[in-house]
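Question:
When you can, review this sequence-structure pair and walk me through the tokens.
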Amino acid sequence: MRLVVLGGGESGVGTAILGKKKGYDVFVSDFGKIKENYKEVLTINGIAWEDEKHTEDLILNADVVMKSPGIPEKAPIVKKLVEKGIPVISEIEFAIQFTDATTVGITGSNGKTTTTLLTYHLLKQGGLNVGLAGNIGKSFAWQVAENKHDIYVLELSSFQLDGIINYKPHIAILTNISPDHLDRYNYDYNLYINSKFRITKNQTEADYLIYDNEDEAIQNWLKNNKIKANKVPFSLTGKPENDGGYIEDNNINSTIKNELFTMPINELALEGKHNIKNAMAATAVAQLLNIRKQTIRESLTNFQGVEHRLEKVLKIQGVQYINDSKATNVNSVFYALDSMNAPTVWIVGGVDKGNDYDELMPLVREKVKAIVCLGVDNTKIINAFNNVVDVMVETTSMSEAVQLAQRLAEKGDSVLLSPACASFDLFENYEDRGKQFKQAVHNL
């Protein structure tokens, strides 16, 4: 069997290693440049590779193709593969056939990284042999090749879910759905929603779907579509009929199989309403996998947050600098602005993914005193907020953006980097953008 891997990053190299171990004839092809450390791994393992091109003769003879999530369906080479009827799948779909491990699959437009890391933390503290993979950490396929774990917590993007045929998580979490990556879904929100719900399509009556019961897109989809999995809703405002998470007397409560877990909200390590929901989702998983209540409580109390997600960097002359570089869509920024308790200088901008800024208007009016646009093309942001905020400035440099923000901020204010956009116009990725922000703040 010939396995062709498109993309020589973490998921691609991991898939290649697993494929080689399982006796496939493996070839890795990347249209961009493969990093030196990955080239070395491929060469040591005797895996053929190429970069900065796609040689069709070496690709179109595949029995199966693993496509890295960053490569769009409309890439010419992918179209040719599909025309030839060659299966194009995701890393998760390829790797799952070679492991008996239980998986917890986590998706959503926002909160999935925090929820994934928090779930992993709860299960690890509970003594389970658990791995962390998907959009985060070491490649899932790579870990399967090394026979690592009994349970995996997988952060799954819509792109990874698009490449699924048979994969089913035993426990799935859908944190929320809001418009994102619409450029990859023909600007059709319903296509994106359906993509997210692929997480439950193969689940059976023995499996679980944990979801935000206040999310309009989720509610509507579940009204119109039947699922087999057991439903475990969570909500800040209502109480579920059976299993699920809810708030009562300033406590977070979670009932699973008639077992109630409860703890005071003010003891949670993470702040903000959205993080109460993330905690409910992670708690439900821990209960389903029989982690002791005391361990869950301690783990929710001592969890360290996620880098680049509402990360407090420094307080300088009474101004708090906050790195929320991971906020690459409007809904993420909504959570960020909603949690601001001080007048805010907002650094925003990058590559627009089809954003509609209307839902931010009330929060911007209430909380934002000035906007620093950090992007190559800021027209859409300027048009949206020109009449809402008195001060708007533009820059294409992170250090200048931070210096401008410092001039605009007064004692007691906050400076928030929460871009609402992808980072590829000026940075390698959101991590690079966040690191540059932190460096610029330390340089003030």
In short: Residues 347 and 372 are 5 Å apart (CA to CA). The chain has 17 helices and 20 strands. The longest helix spans residues 273-288. The radius of gyration is 22 Å.
